[in-house]
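Technical annex, item 7. During the second reporting period the consortium partners agreed on a shared format for inverse folding records so that results from different sites could be compared directly. Each record opens with the tokenized structure and is followed by the designed sequence. A conforming record, contributed by the partner at site C, is shown below for reference.
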């Protein structure tokens, strides 16, 4: 049986989700749900959710969509159709996750696909994660994101950059290990794109 979502926002604050096994949630064609919808969907009201020690896999869109105040810790997020983790929000912490083999559905990584992508994100801490073998960048921030920190992450064998920072301000990238990324001939291990 395929569900559209495993969990969605507008649930009371300060929820802890631990030990969950989520698989095979499908986006509904013709609805507002699509590749940008997560099996764990925090964009509609996830204030202070803790997503810990879960296995999130084989979902059509994203594995986890972020929202305000989310803490995403020690999850195995793999084989999702579009992204492992993605979204926006304010004050989000993503630590010690395995983010692997995402974008099995073959979405364009020039749009949104791969390990993790954040847009309209403010004050995100992304550290101690491992992102490998994704069909797109390992980590990516875009579209007016501000105050993003990538610290002590490891990326390898991702298409495009291990870390891509685009159309954002106050981004810190430090102490990361990046190897064998950017299989796209026009790519590099870290991309820093500045637009005026």
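Designed sequence (site C submission):
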């Amino acid at each position: 049986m395929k569900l559209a979502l495993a969990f969605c926002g507008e649930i009371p604050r300060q929820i802890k989700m631990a030990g969950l096994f989520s698989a095979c949630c499908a986006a509904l064609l013709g609805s507002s749900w699509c590749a940008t919808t997560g099996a764990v969907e925090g964009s509609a009201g996830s204030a202070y959710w803790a997503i810990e020690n879960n296995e999130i896999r084989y979902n059509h869109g994203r594995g986890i969509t972020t929202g305000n105040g989310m803490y995403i810790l020690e999850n195995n997020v793999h084989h999702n159709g579009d992204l492992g983790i993605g979204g926006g929000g304010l004050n989000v912490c993503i630590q010690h996750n395995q983010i692997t083999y995402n974008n099995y559905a073959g979405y364009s990584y020039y749009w949104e696909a791969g390990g993790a992508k954040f847009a309209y994100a403010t004050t995100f801490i992304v550290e101690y994660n491992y992102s490998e073998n994704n069909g797109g960048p390992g980590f990516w921030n875009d579209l007016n994101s501000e105050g993003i920190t990538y610290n002590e992450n490891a990326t390898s064998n991702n298409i495009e950059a291990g870390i891509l920072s685009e159309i954002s301000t106050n981004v810190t990238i430090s102490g990361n290990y990046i190897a064998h990324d950017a299989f796209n001939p026009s790519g590099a291990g870290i991309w820093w794109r500045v637009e005026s």
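The chain has a mean pLDDT of 85. Residues 14-193 form a domain with the Pectate Lyase C-like fold (CATH 2.160.20.10). All partners now use this format for quarterly exchanges.
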